[in-house]
Design brief:
Number of strands: 0
Distance between the termini: 21 Å
Largest sheet: none
Number of domains: 1
CATH topology: Four Helix Bundle (Hemerythrin (Met), subunit A)
Structural class: mainly alpha
CATH superfamily: DksA, coiled-coil domain
Helix content: 55-70%
Strand content: under 5%
CATH class: Mainly Alpha
CATH architecture: Up-down Bundle
Length: 108
């Protein structure tokens, strides 16, 4: 079963705005903690890898902020590409995602 396949007995169709913002706040805090740890590690022989990790964390933080804006404007949980609802199971795993799985695969 894929994350986009409907599942019998799904708890809810969409996350409430409060729950979505809570999950996004947790995601933001986790990424900021990781970014701080990388900053504290300082330069060293692994700098190219650390630089890539910092860039990835900054990109995810940008995606989290965009997801927060989607919660505020009422479009959170709707795929930006096909306009179908993103399954709640996917949003529970990746709360900042703007795409359903099929569209994510097509946009990669």
């Amino acid at each position: 079963m894929t994350p986009d396949a409907p599942r019998a007995g799904t708890r809810r169709e969409r996350l409430t705005p409060d729950v979505a913002l809570e999950r996004l706040a947790h995601e933001r805090a986790s990424r900021l903690t990781q970014l701080q740890a990388l900053h504290e590690a300082g330069p060293g022989p692994a700098e190219p890898v650390l630089s890539t990790q910092r860039d990835t964390l900054r990109r995810v933080l940008t995606e989290v902020e965009a997801a927060c804006a989607r919660v505020q404007d009422g479009t959170y949980g709707v795929c930006l590409k096909c306009a179908r609802p993103i399954p709640v199971e996917r949003l529970e795993i990746l709360p900042h995602t703007p795409f359903c799985v099929p569209c994510q695969r097509g946009s990669a």
